[in-house]
């Protein structure tokens, strides 16, 4: 009977251990989800405090017309169109760490929305973090992305990934050089000499600064900002995005 009792005790302990493991896994997943939301909220809050109008007006300081990329709409969106589906708008800064995290977590989901025609997806590059580098990298990288988009929107999607994969550290040092940005463009599939010239001469930096000023004037306070049919996404998870799209499509 003692042996049977020991066996029963071991079985009970094993069951408790298994239940404890499952509970711990659930707690871990909840913590990861919580920290993702907290991280995004903290970055948005920090930017809301730190952004000043003087940082966003643009280097020209006047209302003179600026060269605009042909691939973008007049209000600064690169559109991957689809008919009779909700519109997802994503505003990002290529220097923004939370945007890099967004790309890593949401990238495949957003790609699927585009490839499968599940949403009309707009990308809106802005430059709100020029102060984090010594050479206005936010504006230069967004300008480079516009150069690439003018050659190929397919290459732009690959270039966007390259920019986040090679994102410079914040801290006041230099960002990637224009020559390095041009190299990344080639590796993404944008091989035209004009694209390289566009990047190295910073052709669209004034346009980026103007679009950024317009966006902040319209209420942008941080990146990434994601909306579905104009409503800001509250559940910043891939599942939350898909649920919001499904609800908007009803």
Structure summary:
The chain is an alpha+beta fold and 250 residues long. The chain contains nine helices and five strands; from the N terminus they run ααββαβαααααββα.
General description of the model:
It is a single chain. With 250 residues, the protein is an alpha+beta fold. The protein folds into 2 domains: 1-50; 53-248, Glutaredoxin, CATH 3.40.30.10. It is 57% helix and 8% strand. The protein has 9 helices and 5 strands. A 5-stranded mixed β-sheet has the order 1-3-2-4-5. Strand 2, helix 3 and strand 3 (120-125) form a beta-alpha-beta unit. Residues 1-36 and 40-61 have low confidence and may be disordered.
Considering the chains and any ligands shown, give keywords for the structure:
250 residues; alpha+beta; 2 domains; five-stranded mixed beta sheet; 8% strand; disordered N terminus
CATH superfamily of the largest domain: Glutaredoxin
Largest sheet: 5 strands, mixed
How many distinct domains?
2
Helix percent reads: 55-70%
Write the layout of secondary structure elements.
Layout: H1 2-50, H2 53-56, E1 78-80, E2 87-92, H3 97-115, E3 120-125, H4 137-151, H5 153-165, H6 178-188, H7 193-200, H8 205-217, E4 225-228, E5 231-232, H9 238-248
Parallel strand pairs: 2-3
Antiparallel strand pairs: 1-3, 2-4, 4-5
Helix pairs in contact: 4-5, 4-6, 4-7, 4-8, 5-6, 6-7
